[in-house]
Amino acid sequence: MLINLVRFQRQVGFVFSKCRNRDTWLPSVNHSKEYSAAALERKKFYQDVSISQGEDGLYEINLDRKKLKTPAGKLFTVPNEALAIAVATEWDMQKDTLKFYTMHLTTLCNTALDNPTQRDKGQIIAAGLKFLETDTICYRVEEPPGLVELQKNEWDPVLDWIEKRYNVLIGSSSNIMGPQIPKETKDTFHQHLRSYNFWALTGLEFIITQLKSLVLSFGLVDRHLTVEQAVLLSRLEEEYQIQRWGNVEWAHDYDMYELRSRTAAGALFVHLSSESSTVKHKLLQD
């Protein structure tokens, strides 16, 4: 059932919390890692997953005959069929045990629906733009020479791309204060971000916080970078140190896969939140 999006969502992970009703568990918008294993897993309590369209045109997720709700108790609804299928796939993929930390799309939907911080589009855009002042790939080291060269070779092409793509100036700096971003650049990015709807902005902000980079996030969403490339570029200094000194066995790979999972989920959420066409029939045929 609903297997066509599974290949995208095998990279996706979520954090959940229990709602007040003991009969169900609902996703939480809290992304903290400090949860016990018991809070992140639960025995599966449903058999079938389906989607339905309400009278308002929004799509709902059904677990057997029960409608999914958000942590705040709202009916869980998404704006289009593509996103509904993707979320339903997350629930359908679960086996005997529900692994809530593997369901990032559901959590992102809850964030958009409940809006726990009560922010509007302008506030989300402002928060995203702040990362430009401390963007990962704008900060450069002065030594060791090997890392200096690596940053130049790997990061400069991405900076060149985004400056040409949006006709802006960003630059880089080894100063602790970072580069001085021109007001015109901020205004251009602000205008571009306003073209996204609230849901897509929620996903984009999630990507930015994972990569600590507005530049890399734009590169990913604009399909200039793959998930693997964006994650690797965001961890360039760490990867350099690991190649030089080695890494803790298994820990490095785990962190890498987790970051890829969250980043992939955010990118998929942005694109699906912007989807307006009916895709269910085509997906089920593929």
Automatic annotation (TrEMBL):
User: Any idea what this protein is called?
Assistant: ATP synthase mitochondrial F1 complex assembly factor 2
Domain of life from the UniProt record: Eukaryota
Q: How does it assemble?
A: Interacts with ATP5F1B; involved in the assembly of the F1 component of the mitochondrial ATP synthase (ATPase). Interacts with FMC1.
Q: Name one Pfam family in it.
A: ATP12
Query: Which terms under GO biological process does the entry name?
Result: mitochondrial proton-transporting ATP synthase complex assembly
What membrane topology does the annotation report for this chain?
Answer: Peripheral membrane protein
Q: Name the keywords, alphabetized.
A: Chaperone, Membrane, Mitochondrion, Mitochondrion inner membrane, Transit peptide
Name a single GO cellular component: mitochondrial inner membrane
Q: State the similarity comment.
A: Belongs to the ATP12 family.
Location in the cell = Mitochondrion inner membrane
Q: Which InterPro entries match?
A: ATP12_ATP_synth-F1-assembly, ATP12_ATP_synth-F1-assembly_N, ATP12_ortho_dom_sf
Q: What functional role does this protein have?
A: Plays a role in the assembly of the F1 component of the mitochondrial ATP synthase (ATPase).
